[in-house]
Amino acid sequence: MQRVTIEDVARRAGVSKGTVSAVINGRNTVRAETREHVLNVMKELNFRPRGVARNLKNGELDKSIGIIIKDLSYPFYTTIALGAREYANSKGYSVVVTSSENDHECERKYTHLFSAKDIKGAIIAPLVEGTAEIEHLFKLKMLNYPFVLLEDVKGIQANVVAIDNIKAIKKAVKYLIEIGHTKIVHFAGPPQSSHTHERIDGFRQAFSESPLVFREDMIVSIGSRHEESYGNALQYFRSRNREDYPTAVVCFNDQQALAVLTALRELNIRVPDDISIVGNDDIYYARLYPVPLTTIRAPQYEIGRKAAEILIRNIESPTALPPEKVVLETDFIIRESTKPLRT
Amino acid sequence: MQRVTIEDVARRAGVSKGTVSAVINGRNTVRAETREHVLNVMKELNFRPRGVARNLKNGELDKSIGIIIKDLSYPFYTTIALGAREYANSKGYSVVVTSSENDHECERKYTHLFSAKDIKGAIIAPLVEGTAEIEHLFKLKMLNYPFVLLEDVKGIQANVVAIDNIKAIKKAVKYLIEIGHTKIVHFAGPPQSSHTHERIDGFRQAFSESPLVFREDMIVSIGSRHEESYGNALQYFRSRNREDYPTAVVCFNDQQALAVLTALRELNIRVPDDISIVGNDDIYYARLYPVPLTTIRAPQYEIGRKAAEILIRNIESPTALPPEKVVLETDFIIRESTKPLRT
DNA sequence: CATGAAAATTGGAACGTTTCAACATAGCGA
DNA sequence: TCGCTATGTTGAAACGTTCCAATTTTCATG
Asked: In a mutagenesis test of the B interface, which of A20, A62, A73, A335 is the best target, namely the one with the most B β-carbons within 10 Å?
């Protein structure tokens, strides 16, 4: 079955291609009668004009950028997308969002889609599991396709907008130590995120810079998806005696922290009276919780905005620009899920 | 400044267009030396191949659909998007998401973008404020561009996947009446959503089918964005005496309900002891709240999946299909934010 | 009815790639 | 040295639109 083209419509309607084109584009040079007739034929043949061919002739008319995030339902990422959207809109760009849902193949597929569709550039939250599934990023470089990464990826020179996870976690842990906690645990995130590893490093470093000693069992990998972290958290606490509980937990992110809070409620462990909890990201919903979460605030909106700014600068530059790397500051926000240890 | 084309690269590199094309596409018919050289020239000229031209020659290679939601940070919509994504992926389609953020102009712009980029079809959560800002939908129809709406839009024949808001709200209100409530109020949503109007209607009808009488002041429009609803809710309760409080509130959606809960906490009004609260949508985060929200569960995932199914059927059909309209059932989920009125 | 202006229509070039048959070259064995 | 392959490279046609100068048709007017 062949694609229906403007030519088929023209032939069937007994007019020229030019006229059909004029109808499609709503030009007022067409007699009402002719227009009607052509529209009918279009409908009859179920003719769908090929956007691609229209664009080709017209040159660059649309300005658009794409974002590939990891998890469409995690507000951290959608807020970044909204920040990017704000800046992009102010420059006349449209923004389309796409989510890899932690699947490498999807990430690859979407970078391809973007360049194939002439989306002018991309902001990518890259999956960095293991070593080198970054073939597709090299391909983008070959095509001189502008992109900005939201996490550093080893082995590739590229624009990056990131946050200083190590510094952020260190600050949180040091605070907990200051207010008297010694039995502190880090619930770590999924292995395919560079955030996970950086946060673990920060946790370690905080200890090595304190009088306390770090032990391997202070790092517990429980994931960040709700069901998973909820289950793991339940199991973690159930499998040990009350006196072996940590007095403070630093969570990988707020989503995980909410799962942990849910588990603790289930177990009748009070926050912050029995255990202090620190989140990470400062997502919107964590603020609404009746015990508002102490957390590390990542400037999500700002991350998106900055990434869009760099991206658009690169898109609009006629010459290749040297890669930029921006590290944004986090804030440590003390709310009500942490409190000094009673001694 | 002219666009750099493959021809420029070829000329500068002293080879033919065909060879440059072969390099770009990683064909192994090119001598390593030649490849290097061409790549260098590409970089030097900052040559970005035009995806559009590549697609034109190749015909239909990509399968992709787009979704336009209203609010990227509201989980109700992202969950729908994930449902659509699941089905679409199973059929080999990519999915790009876009958000109108309640702006008509954005909605229009994105429908245009999708058809211009040959995204094969769209799922649209339409803004239906007032009467007829639906020019762009008619344009899509003219282009025989396949789309599915997530709310009914008056005046246009189209595929729709929706939920029965009226029935759903009636069920909730009747339940509240059954368990003894008489002073019930509906906090209504923003005017540009058809959900708002349908839910108001449902509320009214529940009363007209009960012994109780409906009064206009039972409908209070407080919006659904957090800051706005939070502020309005605070003001609502502050501006009247305790004995005039409703004993139950039916909220427009869960996001609004969470804002109301926050306001009530602020005012030391207990839920459900002083006031029962019913949400709507059953978003993920409302479940985590320590007083899990009684709510009307919209089958978000299913909505997305069904919409994608209809959309793809239309995309793949060579002939125009008659519009389909699907209404999905909601569940009324009783959790802990409602309780019988003590008498 | 002839005329000229206005309105409507036509058709070929152009957009920037890919494709592929044809051609050129290099390397090798006899 | 001469074929013969295998390997590289070329260049014109094709993809499906839009554009626009040229042409035809319509219509009002005297």
From this structure: A73
Structure tokens at A265: 């409620």
The tokens describing B118, both together, are 């040959």
CA atoms within 13 A on the CB side of A309: 11
Among A181, A202, A190, A197, smallest CA distance to A226 is for A190
Cβ contacts of residue A334 below 8 Å, gap of 6+? A175, A294
The model's pTM is 0.94
Does residue B130 register a pLDDT over 60?
A: no
Chain B interface disruption, residue of A2, A46, A270, most B CBs within 10 A: A46
Distance CA B283, CA B299 (A): 10
In sequence order, what are the beta bridge partners of A251? A187
d(CA A72, CA A110): 14
B-chain CB neighbours of A144 within 8 Å are 42-43, 46-48
Give the three-state DSSP class for B162: strand
Pairwise CA distance, residues A210 & A2, whole Å? 72
Q: What's the Å distance between residue A207 CA and nucleotide D25 C1'?
A: 89
Sign for the pseudo-dihedral over CA of B201, B205, B208, B212: negative
Q: What one-character DSSP code corresponds to residue B295?
A: E
End-to-end CA distance of chain A: 79
Interstrand relation of B64-69 and B122-124 (parallel, antiparallel or unpaired)? parallel
Are residues B78 and A82, on separate chains, in Cβ contact within 8 Å? no
At A166 the three-state DSSP class reads helix
What pLDDT, in 10s, does the model give residues A160-210?
A: 999 999 999 999 999 999 999 999 999 999 988 899 999 999 999 999 999
- Position A288 scores a pLDDT of 85
Name the amino acid, one letter, at A205.
Q
Ramachandran quadrant class, B104 (left: phi over 0; alpha: psi -120 to 50; beta: rest): alpha
Asked if residues B221 and B188 have their Cβ atoms less than 8 Å apart, the reply is yes
Distance, angstroms, CA A13 to C1' C11?
A: 16
Q: Helix, strand or coil for residue B163?
A: strand
Report how far residue A237's alpha carbon sits from residue A233's, in angstroms, rounded to the nearest whole number: 6
Reference A249, options B154, A241, A162, A258; nearest CA is A258
pLDDT in tens, A116-135: 999 999 999 998 865 557 88
The alpha helices in chain B, defined as continuous H runs, are 6-13, 17-24, 32-45, 51-58, 75-90, 104-116, 135-142, 165-178, 194-208, 226-238, 254-266, 284-288, 300-316
For chain A, percent helix, then strand, then coil, each to nearest 5? Answer: 45, 15, 40
Q: Please enumerate in sequence order all residues whose Cβ is within 8 A of that of A322, keeping only pairs 6 or more positions apart, or say none.
A: none
Helices B51-58/A104-116 angle, 10° precision: 90
CB nearest A265 (choices: B50, B259, B290): B290
> Is residue B17's beta carbon less than 7 angstroms from any atom in nucleic acid strand C?
yes
With vertex at residue A17, the alpha carbon angle to CA A16 and CA A22, rounded to the nearest 5 degrees, is: 100
The pLDDT of residue B210 is above 60: yes
Tell me the CA end-to-end span of chain B in Å, nearest whole number: 79
Give strand letter and number of the nucleotide nearest A31 (CA to C1').
Answer: C8
Report how far residue B43's alpha carbon sits from residue B24's, in angstroms, rounded to the nearest whole number. Answer: 12
Mean pLDDT on B138-163? 95
pLDDT at A131: 58
* Residue B61: pLDDT band with limits 50, 70, 90: confident
